[in-house]
Design brief:
Radius of gyration: 14 Å
Helix content: 55-70%
Largest sheet: 2 strands, antiparallel
Shape: globular
Number of strands: 2
Structural class: mainly alpha
Strand order of the largest sheet: 1-2
Strand content: 5-15%
Number of helices: 4
């Protein structure tokens, strides 16, 4: 067990709980990152918009791992990415751990 990773993730969850009064799941966290990166205010979003925001969040946090690269913004100002690496074939638990590590890296940078 990686105690440093677990400690860091627990601290991030604590920050979310203090700010939002609950700990969001990974989908909500990636959507929040997408909101931040897209520069849009929180409002009611359609299901498709939520998926786009989650995609932006995932691409943003995985870019430092070499899986995606920011290529600019579309005509509406939404961030665009291209895949630059092959995502590894991982179990569900390993995917979740990779995403958590990437999210921790994002919050440690910003």
């Amino acid at each position: 067990m990686d105690y440093e990773f677990e400690r860091s993730w627990a601290q991030l969850e604590k920050m979310f709980k203090e700010r939002f009064e609950e700990v969001p799941d990974l989908h909500a966290i990636t959507m929040l990152i997408g909101l931040q990166e897209a520069g849009v205010d929180f409002r009611d979003f359609s299901k498709d918009e939520k998926l786009v925001l989650m995609h932006i969040g995932i691409c943003t946090v995985l870019a430092p791992f070499g899986f995606y690269r920011f290529i600019g913004r579309d005509k509406e100002g939404w961030p665009m990415f291209e895949r630059t690496g092959t995502l590894p074939s991982l179990s569900g638990d390993d995917q979740q751990r990779l995403l958590k590590k990437a999210i921790l890296g994002y919050f440690n940078q910003n």
